[in-house]
Amino acid sequence: MTSNTTNNMFVPQYNILDDSAVQEKNAPVSLVDKCPKVIASFIDTYGYKPDFIAHSPGRVNLIGEHIDYADFSVLPLSLERDMLCAIKVHDLKENNNPSITLANKDKQRFAGRKFDLPLDGSPINIDPSISDWSNYFKCGLYVAQLYLKEICPEKYNVQPLNGMDVFCQGDVPVGSGLGSSSAIICAVTLGIIRANMGHGYRIPKADLLRITSVAEHYLGVNNGGMDQAASIYGQRGHALCVSFKPELKATPIQFPTMSLDWDIEFIVADTLVEVNKYDTASTNYNLRVVEVIIAANILAMHYGVVMNYDLSSNIRKGNLRDFMNAYLGLHRSQVKFEINDSIESRINQLELMLQLTEECLGDKKNGHTADEVSKALECSKEEFTREYLMLFPIRFQMLKIYKRAKHVYSEALRVIKTLQLFEETNEQTKTNNYTFYHQFGELMNGSQRSCDELYECSSVEIDKLCEIALNNGSYGSRLTGAGWGGSTVHLVPNGPNGCNVEHVKNALIEQYYKLQYPNITQEVLDNAIIVSKAAPGS
Ligand code: NG1
Ligand code: MG
């Protein structure tokens, strides 16, 4: 079938998610383009048409780095890069031996797979020790099946799921911190639910987030749920405020409108330096996690408060958010501001935490030794080692408690100030608010400085990309994701003819990519720079 006929045959309709996406009458431009292609590939592979397409995007974090594991809100955005799964459900009559066939557009990296579904409705087996793309599919399948058992126990506790043929087509770069794994998991989960519950069933987004946020745990990844929240709740023209306490949720916040012929876009530029976040010899994501847990416990000891934390978490120690809540609970009557959820109060709370950090930890700005930490925690070195240093494999010379805590509280404060900026600008209902973007850019730059100087998670390559972008018209430039390599994000105004975006993009190509990687191919370059507005979610 030619792409012309497929073009006419597919009219995207939203009919499974319960809220915003359903109301969106027109499909996003990028999907109008991609859907006919995935349908054509499906037909090429299987010889017949799919029943439907499930879709979920990747994400970039705009501000709020390395604070999700301290339970402070972060501000990601879903990208116009996504995973599409075209699916044909097998005829029920032929379903006495149900199976799933998987094909992927990128056959080279992701070869075809086929597996049977247990006949008695028991869950599929996932082996985290093998690294295969079908494991992500299986994670989606697994949590979808648990959900189906929850809503229709009489059926799904005894019956197998429907068999199906699947064709996956994704353009979220894999392994550069843009949420490719959650894009596939969310798309698959939706697809499985639709394939079994049929066309009329609508899953609430909150349920989809609840079930997918833990899906990667079956592969041994203890992620926090920011990626899935962004993928599911994405909305055109909106960033998302993902918060973790009292529960995981994502609230869309609208970007202020610009004048008619100006628009704002984000450039996401990959350093092309791949990092193994969990490598103890180099970057040490886990060391940061341990340092901020220690910081929370030293603060709690110093100020005589008892932290109240989630016992179900695998780190039963309390974090910097737990310390803040415990401290404010104890000193409610002494603090000079009202404690509530308003932006003003949250700013006051975080400013107070920054003061306490100075007061309690500021005499050791360059770090604590293990002996000094044990003393501050009033425990023996053995106890300290057992309780804190065995949480994850880590190596260190000094524990940079002060710097890490200062980053977390100041970064959480920058997120709140960004929210405040959105709120104030939207209230003014100005249509042409460049001040907003300058101030937002400044906060992004502040985040980058803090990641560099206090959290020490930037790199020469990240710094270079940010410098070039800022010198060529970006309002704000910073690393996104864990850092030490991976991707950067740049806030860029897009004028008539796309002049500024093109200008920044060309500068990055000429001054970074071509110098750093003289033999870079066009294909690698095309994948390294993504220009995207906020895209709709699953
Ligand atoms: P990336 O590098 O985008 O996978 C990681 C963590 C996030 C968050 C950021 C830093 C994983 C799977 N994700 O993101 O939860 O902590 O670093 O803000 O490790
Ligand atoms: Mg991931």
Automatic annotation (TrEMBL):
It catalyses: alpha-D-galactose + ATP = alpha-D-galactose 1-phosphate + ADP + H(+). Coiled coil: none annotated. One of its GO terms (molecular function) is galactokinase activity. Pathway: Carbohydrate metabolism; galactose metabolism. Transmembrane segments: none annotated. Belongs to the GHMP kinase family. GalK subfamily. NCBIfam families: gal_kin (TIGR00131). This is Galactokinase. The lineage of its organism: Eukaryota, Fungi, Dikarya, Ascomycota, Saccharomycotina.
